[in-house]
Amino acid sequence: MRLEGLKAGLRIEGLVPDEVFTVIAVQWHGTNALELTYKTTAGSLGQRVVFRKDESRLRVARSGSRAFDAPASDFKLAAEAQRINLAGLFDPMLAVATSDVRPLPHQIRAVYGELLPRSPLRFLLADDPGAGKTIMGGLYIKELILRGDVERCLVVAPGGLVEQWQDELFFKFGLHFDLLTNQYADANINRNVFETAPLLIARMDQLSRNERLQAELRETEWDLVIVDEAHRMGAHYFGGKLEKTKRFQLGESLGELTRHFLLMTATPHPGKEEDFQLFLTLLDRDRFAGRGKGSADTGGIMRRMIKEDLLTFDGRRLFPERIAETVPYELTALEYALYDQVTSYVREGMNRAERIGDKRKNTVGFALTVLQRRLASSPEAIYQSLVRRSKRLERKKQEVLNGTYREFQPTVDLVGLDADEFNAEQIEELEEELLDSATAAQTVAELDRELRELAELTSVAERVRALGTDRKWTELSTILRDNVLTTDVDGKPRKLIIFTEHRDTLDYLTARIGSLIGHPEAVTAIHGGVRRDERRRITEEFTKNPACRILVATDAAGEGLNLQAAHLMVNYDLPWNPNRIEQRFGRIHRIGQEHVCRLWNLVASNTREGEVFIRLLKKIDEQRRAYGGKVFDVLGEAFTDTPLRILLMQAVQYGERPEVKARMHEVIDHSVGDGLKDLLDERALASEHLTEADLAALRTAMDDARARRLQPTYVEAAFKEAFTRLGGRIVHRGHGHYEIASVPAHIRAAKSAPIAARYDRVTFDLSRIPSNAAKRADLLAPGHPLHDAVMEETIRRFGGALNSGTVLVSSKLKEPHLLVGVIEEVADATGASVARRFGYAYVDSHGTVTPAGPAPYLDCAAPDAPAAVTTARTPPWLADAEDRAITWIVSHRLPEYLADVRSRRAAELAKTRALVTSRLEGERDRLIADAVLAAGKERAGERPKESAESLNRKAVELDQRLRNRLELLDRQASMSAKPPLILTAALVLPA
């Protein structure tokens, strides 16, 4: 066609193969070239210079924007691949249907009621331990991937949990995440390691401590970042000064480089409200800026559910009851003599450390605290500790005499220990490093005196150890005989976990229990020195092998391991951090636990710290009876003003003083009595509950999702046809299982995720994957790399049929209709997509549009006559049918869709606006008031803590932050519908 024929509104083809353009505007440049502004069938705008020599390629599109000449089989195959790729836009719970999980009501509500509706997401998921937060995180990740909203995802977790995350995401959700190990980083030394894998898991401390990795991380952008055990990213105020930990600074960086940011922890509140609000600034620094007074309003930004409130879909309690029992015992005379002498040594060492007055004071105090705890643990632990300490101090003495001693004493962050910022493995390493060497003694004379004291203590400890009358062991053996060396009513052997704090005690108990039972293989152990892959093997053995009945563990097993095969537990050593009690109990009190969980706490009642524990456990039991187990969930938060560790050391140092003892009892009564009541009342207001109405609504939502679900039969049919046409071989092996004998190389090369050359066993139906199968089948569904590669390659190979269109025949129609596949989308003024949906619709000769279901082309057949002959007689109204369809959708469907999206989003934005304004204005006004006072002091010749100029500058910065945030909120609140995007069309004729 001649260039003069190009007019606005005309549809042309030939400029790009298999594309039809609508002319928007034409601007001539001389007489032989023009600038063409056009819109593609995908809805995007473009410009191109067209010359006279291009005229031979240009022609008017034959019928509307489609030629309708593609083979019907190609069209149906590509349309089905396209529908499956876009299933996240019409299947409301696609991740549930395509993952090996059976989510519970609180998990469905979290993912589909709290997380997915918020875009961009800034949220703290704070359900109790054992509630399945990893499952919720996996569902959220997969749902966003399937909806096309996430391509790059980073999961940050403590070192002990990264392999668990990798396993769960792969085996339950079919998502292949790479692990950022040191070897992985070294292998990509000349590249930004964060650009090498779109799905990545990294260790929290690996990132927070490595400046090179941090620099590379800051150069990247992510769609979604999830942080597990996020409470470790803490910050604190010390004397009015804000102290940010390296982990907190990492959290700030992560929040700046991702669109969606999800924090997960079972212990969100560190005990101090101001520290909690600092933690929340990771999600919204404007909303929680400054040192706000009163409790933080976490509405819309945090979800917390308590174990005792979690239910199944039929309304039953999800978790069984848990009962804790204190087992007091008295040390024998010789044991007490050892206890008294070691306690005196520790007390004197603490007093000497107090007199040091330098940075070593905390280190020495920490080491002596560990020694006191090992004294309470077992004769073996204290004996071995005294021997090792003597050897280390003897070496130090020789180095001092030789002039070769170089002191290196790392300081211990006791606040961090109390705030539970260190994992169990790190604490074990720290204790082993410091226990044997940290001392207040510096001169040879001081070291000689301490070595003489240690020799006396070691002699007594050796006598106690040799005597073999260990009262604590006697109590444990009684528990074992009464509760473990029997079977349950179903005839299965009972399993029990014993927690100790020390490796020496762990080895001691493993040997004695093996002798008691008579089968050493019945006992296994986990401690911080056990490699992570070995921990998984031990856990599997303990879980699956009936002969393996006792697990002895340090707190390294209290983090991230699922041990609900047992329902009995003993705290052989009580932790000095109360958060650990819940973490340990949470290993057995988890989803899937069917038995009442019992915990025995062994306490020496005639010791100073034992008296504190007995008082504490008595108050806990009183509150448990009143509140039903919930006390364990907030126990660590009860000791806000005085950490339990401080109380116990006060007992060791000054426990003989009546006034000190009375004050300790008062603190415990207040913290665990009144304090727990206040905390539980507060949590009751902050946490969510599932009512019967909630359960009914969730059941309805699940039923609706099942009705709209992309059925496995469709996925199976589409995959088999596409895979075969692409050159692959798939063989049916019975019972819904298939073998894929060969995956063509061009399919394997289509995805960055690994795809095998063959698969022994695959299935398309989740119900065909038995949980106890020795060899699991791969679930081929959206999200699996092979499945997605086949669908994408199908669209690439046969997608031209979607652009050209085809002719189909339907027995359900009485006149010709145009079938269109349409995406509708709502975006805000920032350009971000807020909501999208996809579906098919019919357009009749009058331009009326009616919904056509998810895949109406599957019920249609190819015409008997060739498409070219049929389309020669196509009706004249087809030329502008797509335009009329868009007009009808804009007039009749989009206003309702936009109003629905806007109403859901507007309330959340309005609340955020009010909270941000209140917080930033309040902090700004406080700074201005402080600046006025500081200026007055400066005029009077005094020196304020902070200058008036600095305070005023901060106030101006806050005011600018407020204006910027309100401007952003205005843009986010301004939502509009994009023009409907027609992806494909077909002419459907009556049969």
Automatic annotation (TrEMBL):
The keyword ATP-binding applies. CDD domains: DEXDc_RapA, SF2_C_SNF. GO terms for molecular function: ATP binding; helicase activity; hydrolase activity. The keyword Nucleotide-binding applies. Residues 114-286 form the Helicase ATP-binding domain. Keywords: ATP-binding, Helicase, Hydrolase, Nucleotide-binding. PROSITE patterns: HELICASE_ATP_BIND_1, HELICASE_CTER. Pfam families: Helicase_C, SNF2-rel_dom. Residues 479-640 form the Helicase C-terminal domain. InterPro entries: DEXDc_RapA, Helicase_ATP-bd, Helicase_C-like, P-loop_NTPase, SNF2-like_sf, SNF2/RAD54-like_C, SNF2_N. This is Helicase.
